[in-house]
Amino acid sequence: SAVELGPYRHYMQKEIFEQPRAVADTLADVLGIMPELFGDGAYQALRQTGRVLILACGSSYYAGLTAKYWIESLARVPVEVEIASEYRYRDSIPHPDTLVVAISQSGETADTLAALRFAREQGMPLNLAICNVATSALVRECPLHFLTRAGMEIGVASTKGFTTQLVALYLLALCLAQGRGRLDDQAELQQLKALRHLPKAMGAVLALEPQIIAWAERFAGKEHALFLGRGLHYPVALEGALKLKEISYIHAEAYPAGELKHGPLALVSEDMPVVAVAPNDKLLEKLKSNLHEVGARGGQLYVFCDRDSAIEPADNISAIRLTEHYGALSPILYTLAMQLLAYHTAVARGTDIDKPRNLAKSVTVE
Ligand code: G6P
């Protein structure tokens, strides 16, 4: 109803703007980095584990892909991420010391539940759920779990569910790192400080909405778009493309920018906007040379970057700068920009944003 929506036009917009609150709530009880955040008994499970297997669908799968970068780099534990509907029917090689992490906003996605049960049957009893619904089937069958506090998500396309999953997964990476002597007290304090600053930093990205609306109006007339990112920001590009597909019905694909030359470059023309996620990290120079290839072929570039990313706007290059450089947590901030771009493109196209055609909020059948 209008009362619930307040100043917003759709639940999706409301939920996008709720994210600083959702992240703050998710962190509210996190007084330190400790395994117990994931339940009694997590201490043993997190120490025993030699590897991590993440199972999920949709946006939750992209949260898992992001977590792979975090866990491998912070904790030096090998991580595999699998789409639940693939994993459950695959002859994979089970390792009993695997921590199996199921990620699901709803906790009711049939494929994710079945994949987790399959993993257990394969002899992997260390299971952990990351979920937004305390009463869900997933939480009921996983004594070890972390509950995100996004609050009820109504828009079919996940927004606050996704970013709070990222927060939970970052905490998991930190706990695993700590258990392996890779997080001393000082590093722990710094990480907590960075996490607690997130809501404010997220607010600064949401304030870019007017600039993003201007881009969205240009996007609305297109039928195809390409999203590029590298490293930790490749999953952000995937999520950006998924959001655009889901709610604006524009065909969008994401590529790790280094793969451009192995295919998608053939599609680049002025009719296909190219969105790049370009934080000022160690891959920026590589990414810039990828972007140069797009520009040289007449592609229109829309670059989300950091204040100091040294990307110069030109005829075919537009840039929106995020105000803060956020290191490892940067994907959370860039995701907000992706959500706003998809949302406003869909608004300009007049689609049914909160209930896109053919899609369901949670897919409880196979
Ligand atoms: C549906 C929703 C997506 C969501 C996916 C996984 O496809 O439309 O937004 O990411 O299910 O849902 P889950 O509840 O398991 O995270």
UniProtKB/TrEMBL annotation:
One of its GO terms (molecular function) is glutamine-fructose-6-phosphate transaminase (isomerizing) activity. It is an enzyme of class 2 (transferase). Residues 42-182, 215-356 form the SIS domain. The keyword S-adenosyl-L-methionine does not apply. Keywords: Aminotransferase, Cytoplasm, Glutamine amidotransferase, Repeat, Transferase. One of its GO terms (cellular component) is cytosol. It is found in: Cytoplasm. Catalyzes the first step in hexosamine metabolism, converting fructose-6P into glucosamine-6P using glutamine as a nitrogen source. This is Glutamine--fructose-6-phosphate aminotransferase [isomerizing]. It comes from Paludibacterium purpuratum. The gene is glmS. The chain holds residues 244 to 609 of 609 of the full protein.
